[in-house]
Amino acid sequence: MDFAENHVKSYEEILEAYVMVLADLKEIMQEDIMVLITNRTDALCHYSGYKLHTKVDQSFKVSDHAHLVEAMRTGKTRSDIMSKERYGIPFASFTYPIKAPDGEIIGCVGIGKSLEKEGRVEEISQGLAATLQQANAGLQEVASGSQGLSFKISNVVKSANESAVKIKEINKVISAISDISSHSNLLGLNAAIEAARAGEQGRGFAVVAEEMRKLAAQSNDSAKMVTEILTQMRESIEGIIMEINQIGGIAENQAAATQEITAAIEEVSENSQNLVELSKITLGGK
């Protein structure tokens, strides 16, 4: 037996080394990992994880498992994502062909790593993304409503200002009526004086003059009353305009703040979508 032959371990020794090394893999990695070591035909040893169980029994044959056969046929490591239907937990499957120093493929290692945590992260990420999308839609609706409110408030202020202008115009008319009343009163007084001078013949004229003076006084009193009412209306409208302007300012600030919040949520939503993509269970860039 030459030097090379003296340093070539037997196939059994190589497989036994794998059995020994991989026995504590889940403890070393602190992960829910199950391990299967086979020769070319049968299972040599298997180790269950914390929740993952290998489900290997005496009837196990390598030829019944395509991923093991494929790994040994090609001599390449194979990775797959296994759904939770069979094992109750989704897991990543890694199949590694065991090669002897002479290149001969003498067995296979199958490792299953639980993806329960990753699946939960994916679910949470998707839920977060959905919630943020709903929040963003709600805020956009609020922002749109605030802008509409601001527009309507502007219209109300415009109408109130127009009313204030009309009140000023009415005040001009009332002032004119007051002037007419004063002149009428003066005319009535002059007419009464002239009637007194005319004596008995001017008595009828004196009655008309007195009624004219009374009407002028009533007109003057009514004009004063209307002026007071209009003044109160003007002051009320001015107060309303002031309040509406303040509300309009609040609405504009609210709309601006909502837009800023919407932009922030859109950014967070975009990041959450990226998180969803990153958290999706994939292997090997698949």
Structure, described:
By secondary structure, the protein is an alpha+beta fold. It folds into 2 domains: 3-114, PAS domain (Beta-Lactamase, 2-Layer Sandwich); 121-279, Helix Hairpins. It is built from 7 helices and 5 strands, in the order αααββαβαββαα. The protein has helices at 3-6, 11-22, 25-29, 66-74, 84-87, 116-198, 203-279, and strands at residues 33-39, 43-47, 78-82, 91-99, 105-114. α6 (116-198) runs antiparallel to α7 (203-279). The protein is rod-shaped, with a radius of gyration of 49 Å. The chain starts with a helix and ends in a 7-residue tail after the last helix. This is Chemotaxis protein. It comes from Dehalobacter restrictus.
Layout of secondary structure:
Layout: H1 3-6, H2 11-22, H3 25-29, E1 33-39, E2 43-47, H4 66-74, E3 78-82, H5 84-87, E4 91-99, E5 105-114, H6 116-198, H7 203-279
Helix pairs in contact: 6-7
